[in-house]
Structures are given as structure tokens and as C-alpha cells.
């Protein structure tokens, strides 16, 4: 590492392969006595160092403004001071709670120290200003090694710089044939909901949903601080950390400033893509973040610590506005941790936070796509005929809908260019592809390969989708589409819902996955996850449901249930509904033609299914028609209905909204058998 990482090594390598360098003529021409260079365009540099300094133009790119207080617009003292303030702010973020000050942070890559760059003098000056700011307190006498050490901060690096860091220092990082950065997330290839902890204190005790069914497993403040210290000490022990200052929520009135401190370039690039990227000016004015993530990644929690049941811990402290990640490198923890934060902050402002995709037609008709993981939020909100607002996390306020994020996180398993061309084409330079398998030589990704995991993912900035709408905000929704991947194959491909049915299915949050493909075909596993995202909500599901009902009523939105799962029998017998058919169904919802279709009501679930729909064979619209074994159909239908019923029992005692009549309507909107 040390020698490989040294700039001298890479300099000499790029030197020898730089095609623009003059060629040395080795054969002395007969007519001339001395050997000379045959190039007509000699380089302007006098030395190799000078040559390399010419290679990088000093500009202030929007996402990498304050790396170095030099060059461009950073050459006066004011900028130097601003730079020092930024370092001080980062030092404060990284401060130990038991020692007096934060670590001594300096900006820049530690690998570049010692090289004679023309920046060196000014970098030292910046560090000196920094020191001046940091050590204003009483002198500390019991200095430990950690107090003598500098931590280098790589602040809001650009994707190109993060690529270089990842490839140089992080094993398993490769450039794919389309220019994406392939990474491995380590032992964890998905989230760890059982390792999530939320601090229960005087405030959150009453505000949050605790107990049975809740995703909020409690921890006390003291334990949080122990884990925080562990993460901070780990991060400070590193030679360098990555810091991202970014935003959540495209609604400027309710924008949240977040800081992410992480150990890996992979994590920094992931968040660069997934959060909203500040402009250069916004970053200058960033100030103190509203929330900070300390991601210690591979460094585990201490299992002797109270409340710890594994070596992984994801801890949220809403009062301190902090989150700590220990013992997992799965980047989705950061994304969904921030989503949990929004599920707390936004409802306090009377804004509904939603685990949904969102897109908008040319007539400004807006649709929300709810659904659990893998049901089609990203796939179906990415639509060449419509503007993409976002694929996964939104807010619905009095102003309309706003995306929380600045990027998309698409599933890649079996990704095919002809079926999902927009997502396929988004996997290019800047995109992080996680846990995919690629050809050793060509670096072409094999999207069908599940060797590492089935949960392969691509994280890309939203503007990589050609028809993304920037800023990612839209008017109030006209259609609310609930997606369920029903592996039992008994729900119709599409049904129109009453408001009470929409609420019933929203609170149920159903999908069915197929567990463990390793040991052959298995029974589908029903999953119920309240609000189609129980893992991320912070308050009781009825709080969000009541808000959704209120907003849908106020804006006259229609609810739909779309089964993106099985048809013609359950998993193992039937097949997954063709994506092309589901797209036709979605088109008919958007255009309004489905609203006026003829409907028939199903038994048991009482769902209104259309009898015809352009582009979709009519016989598949009623699932009963597609099953050859009618007895098996009936049996499976009743089985699913009873699973719904059992799941809903816990909600039966809750009042939804102000009005008792809505609660009763919702209760009777479930299956009847
Ligand atoms: N009929 C269908 N409708 C929708 N998706 C389908 C269909 N058939 C197959 N698929 C596949 O199912 C997957 C849907 O995943 P998608 O990324 O859209 O999930 P998601 O709802 O966004 O989940 P997450 O919240 O985990 O990101 C895609 O891989 C898509 O190609
Ligand atoms: O969070 C993740 O890892 C992926 C995702 O979007 C979800 O599960 O809803
Ligand atoms: Ca998604
Ligand atoms: Mn999601």
C-alpha cells in the first residue's frame, strides 16, 4: 500500500504512458551531430513536477469546493478563514465526548504529503489557522498519542476523486466496462433491521412507536454515547476520513442539512449520489449540519455493551441529531437511516413522509408508487413517457410532493437493457454498483449472477435518468398506486380501491417474497410491513395512515392496487406478470382510461378489477381464470385472506384520524370470508 499509494509511483507511471509527451529520438541523424527531440510541440514545463502541476487546472467545481484553500477563488484570507471554520466544524463533529477538543483535522489526501506541490505552503498555512482555532482552550498536559495525530479530511470529493481513492485503497473496487464503480459491501449485503436501535429518552418515549411490531428497538443515551465514542475513536484513528455535507428534501422550505462521516470512498460516493448535492455557494454557507452520521463501517460494536445482540449496531439518537453505524458496510443503512429521520422530522411539521416512488405526466398528473422492497417502485416510476420525481422516498406537504433524495437505488438482478433501458444506461461513470459480478477481463457486468447476493444494486444521481425533473418537486398526486408482488398469485393484476380499501392496504403493507431459493422451491412468504415501510417509520402507522387519508381526500386522489407478482398459479406453478403488461396497466391508470373502465368485484377481498384493458390479455385480469386448479386457487385465496386478517388484528383497536367512522370503514375494507 505505502509504496503503491505514493504519488511518486503513480507519477512516474502516468509519465511513461502519457502520449502527449515528446518522443525521444534515439537514432542520431547523419546530417546532425547532436541528438534532438523531433516534436514540434515541446511541453511548456521545465521540470516533471511542473509538468504534473499543469495537468490539474485549479477551478472551484461545485461539489469539491473547499478541499484546498488555494488557487481559483480561494486565494484570499477570507477564504482561508472560511476554510478554517469548515475544518473546525468537522473537528467538532469528530470530537470525542471525553477528551477536551476535537481531533486535529487537515484537509487533503495524506498520500500527497511530502510531495513538493506548489500548494504545500498554503496548505500548511491553513493547518496553522486551523490549529489556532482548535486550541484556544486551556493547554492540555496529559497529551495522548491520539492528540498528537492529524486526521485528514477528504471533504465532498468529486466522483472522479472518489474513484481514485476507492481503486487505490479499497479492495474489491473496479471500474466496469461502462465506467461504473463496482464495489463490495462486505459481509452485509442488505440492511440489518434487528440491529437498529433508537434512543428512548423523555421526548422520544412519548412521540415514537415502541413495542410489538415497531422497528424502534430501544437503547439508552449512555449506551448510545459508548457506541458513538467507539465510532468516533475508530474514525479518528484512521489516516483519513471522508466527509459529505449534503441536503435532504427538494422542498426548500423543509430542506435538512446532513453530514456523513465515513471511512470509505465507496460510502462517500454512494451518499454523493443518493443525497442532494449542494452547489458551490450552498456549500460555502452550509454551517452546522442538522444531522450527522458516523459510519464506522467494518469496525464492530462491542458485544459486551448493553443492548448489543450482534457485532452490528445502527443507532439513532434524535435528540442529539446523530446516527452511529458499527459493524456493517452496507451503504443502504445510511440512506434508510436518514429516511427514518425524515419519518420523524416531517410529521412533526405536518408533512407526510412516504416510502414511495413518484413521477409526473406531461399534464402535470402525479402518481405515487408505494410498495415494499422489490415490488417495482424504481422500475415503474422510471418511465420514458413521464418525468421522474424520485424512486423511493418522498414528502407530501401543502406544497405538493418533493423527493427527499438526490439519487436512485435500483435493484440490478436480471437487469436487461431492452426491459429497463433508462436504468441500464444510468449505470455509467459516477454510478456505484454494489456486489455485482463482472468478467475478469472485459469488466462487463453479468446482471444475472447472484454469486455475491441477490440484492445487487446501482446508486446513481437522479439526473442520470434522462427525463428526471429537476428540482424534484411536483403538484399533489392524482393517483396513489400500491404495489404488491403477490407470489401467491391470487391478487388481480390491477384493482381500483375505495379510500377505505386504500387505507386498509396501506396499513397492511403486503407483499410476498419467496424465501431461500437454495433448497429448491418453497412456499411464498407473506410480508406485512405497515405503511409499506415499517422498518423506517418512527411513529405509530395510524399517524401516517390518517395523514394519507386526509391528503387523498383533500386532493381527490384515486387508490389502486397493482400486483407485480404471480399470475396463473403461485410461485413455482405460475409466472411473474410480464413487466410489459404491468407497464400497460400503469399507463391506463395515468391516462385516466382505467378510471372509466367496466369493473367486476372479486370474492373475499372485494376488489374492483377491470374486465378489459388495452394491451393486456383480458383473461389475466381475473386471477381465477388463470389458475387451472380452481380448488387450489380458492384455498390459496383464503389462506392469504386469513394472513391479512391476522396481521390487521393489532390495528383493530386503534382509531385512525379524528373520525371514528373512518376507522370502522377501514376495518370493513379488508377481506370478508
Ligand atoms: N411485472 C413487473 N413489475 C415490476 N417489476 C418487475 C415486474 N417483473 C419483474 N420485475 C422486476 O422486479 C424488480 C422491481 O424492483 P424495484 O427496484 O423496482 O423495487 P423497489 O420497489 O424500488 O424496491 P426497493 O425499495 O428495495 O428499492 C426489478 O428487478 C424488475 O425488473
Ligand atoms: O434500503 C435498502 O437497502 C433498499 C431499499 O430501498 C429498501 O429496502 O426499501
Ligand atoms: Ca428502489
Ligand atoms: Mn426502498
Concise overview:
This protein has about 675 residues and is an alpha/beta fold. About 30% of the residues lie in helices and about 20% in strands.
What would you say this structure looks like, in words?
The chain is α/β, with parallel strands linked by helices and 673 residues long. Helices cover 30% and strands 20% of the residues. The protein is built from 20 helices and 31 strands. The strands form seven sheets. The protein has a nine-stranded mixed beta sheet, sandwiched between helices. Strands 12, 13, 14, 15, 16, 22, 23, 24 and 27 form a nine-stranded mixed beta sheet that branches. The chain has a five-stranded mixed beta sheet with strand order 3-4-18-21-17. It starts with a helix and ends in a 6-residue tail after the last helix. Manganese (II) ion binds next to loops.
Distance between the termini: 67 Å
| Helix/strand structural class | alpha/beta
Q: What are the distinct ligands in this entry?
A: adenosine-5'-triphosphate, oxaloacetate ion, calcium ion, manganese (II) ion
CA radius of gyration: 28 Å
Number of strands: 31
Helical segment tally?
A: 20
- Order of adjacent strands in the largest pleated sheet: 1-2-7-8-9-11-10-5-6
Which bin fits the share of residues in helices?
A: 25-40%
Measured by DSSP, the beta-strand proportion falls in 15-25%
**What characterizes the major β-sheet?**
9 strands, mixed
Low-confidence stretches: 1-19, 61-75, 114-141
Shape: globular
Mean pLDDT: 87
GO cellular component, one term: cytosol
Organism: Lupinus luteus
Pathway: Carbohydrate biosynthesis; gluconeogenesis
Family: Belongs to the phosphoenolpyruvate carboxykinase (ATP) family.
